[in-house]
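Async update (no meeting this week)

Hi team, since we skipped the sync, here's where things stand on the single-chain job. The sequence we agreed to prioritize is pasted below, unchanged from the tracker. I ran it this morning and attached the output directly underneath so nobody has to dig for it. Comments welcome in thread, and please keep replies under the output.
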Amino acid sequence: MALPNIYEQETINTIIDRLEKLTAQTTPQWGKMNAPQMLAHLNVAYDMDNGKIEIKTPALVKFMLRLFLKPVLVNEKPYKTNSRTAPAFIINSEKDFEIEKQKLIANIKETQAKGPSFYEGRESASVGKLTAIEWNNMYYKHLNHHFTQFGI
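Output:
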């Protein structure tokens, strides 16, 4: 079963509709992040992919991530609750809910506008080259995982 297509407007509308149900006071069903921190956490992935945050993954670590983590990230199975978070994605500081929400909406729309041809064969900082479908699955699963975490 294919995941919803983040490159299609209908999917983006559904994602944003879900996001609009989130408030700064929405409490998670699991995990330690509050709603603004969760939005900032989601934005980290987009910032890394768009070169706004640069991480240097050593070759051996990247090989291991590609071997063991990539299949989990890009398949169609939902992430498990309370999955471990990579250090680069951990948000400990307080964040502004509205700023993070608007940034996430902009990131989601930018990804959709770039389209699958932009993402086909594009390099992920942590797991190497991905197909457009793998990018789709990774982005959608991450959004859906945290939206589910917050009951939206």
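Quick observations from my side:
Strands lie at 123-124, 128-129.
The chain has a mean pLDDT of 92.
Reply here if anything looks off.
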